Amino acid sequence: MNVIGTAGMPAAERLAFRREVSAKLWGPCDRRRGSHAEVGFRADSGVSEFGPVQAALVTTAPHAVRCTPDPVRRPEPEVFKLGCVVRGGGLVEQDDRRADLQAGDLILVDTSRPFLGRCAPDAPASLLLLRFPREALPLPARDVRRLNGVRIPGSHGVGALSSQFLLQLAARMDELGPSETARLSALVLDVLTVALAGALDVHGAAPSSTRQGALMAQIRAFMEKNLGDARLTPEAIAVANHISLRYLHKLFQQDGHTVAGWIRERRLEACRRDLTDPRLASRSIGAIAAGWGFSSPAHFSQAFRATYGLSPRQYRTRTPTL
């Protein structure tokens, strides 16, 4: 994760620097300080790439942002931002809609259209911003635009599932290297699809052609979140996502997988990654396997060898920890 911040800069230069960085990341913005202007503007951003999705974890002093697209030069005509409030609150206005936000809530903004964002004035705010081209989503553009400036509650429904994943992502972004972000890219895009398709169902039914894909993304996000739970079974997954066990198996068959096979692959990959992590060098192989839901050490060792051609111990000793 690349960190961009105002720490160490003269107070008088911070706002101008932040405006320049924001223009490069999100487009031209008029960034205005709040009531604490006399102590100097402070802000930090940690930026990571998840395939077509750019994630920025922004921590900032109270301020307002008014963005107006350049009518002459617009190289990315349909770039959206989905924000997840990590800490604090605020409001967003776009297309004559106003959303008052609190921690956990989600908000969609179309950067090709004017919008106003304002942090709560009483405390610093932290926001995870996911920037992505509209074409990356399997949702019709006309439907996505209906969500501009609409609050997606993070307290219940599909919004809560998406919010929980994004809050976890915000908490662990600084731990992720290039290989982890590459592996998570599809999942991040799936979560975006789930959040927006779920909101479309609330504010106007999502097209039927997108519902199955959104449901599959929702199921994968649930499975990733609970991958370390040994009780993660097809039956538990079906119940948690309010579908029949038969339909769950059908969805995975259409995708060329089995439910149990998908869980096993993801767990083995997580164990393989942990076995080469120098921070976990003192942790036993059995503890790593149990932490990712393998209740039988013998079964784990057999499955690992079948997948990677080496036993877990051989893999750990022969692979350099960088």
TrEMBL record:
Every HTH araC/xylS-type domain range: 217-318
This protein's record includes keyword Transcription: yes
Keywords associated with the record: DNA-binding, Transcription, Transcription regulation
UniProt-listed Pfam families: AraC_binding_2, HTH_18
Source species, domain of life: Bacteria
Record protein name field: Helix-turn-helix domain-containing protein
Annotated source species: Actinomadura fibrosa
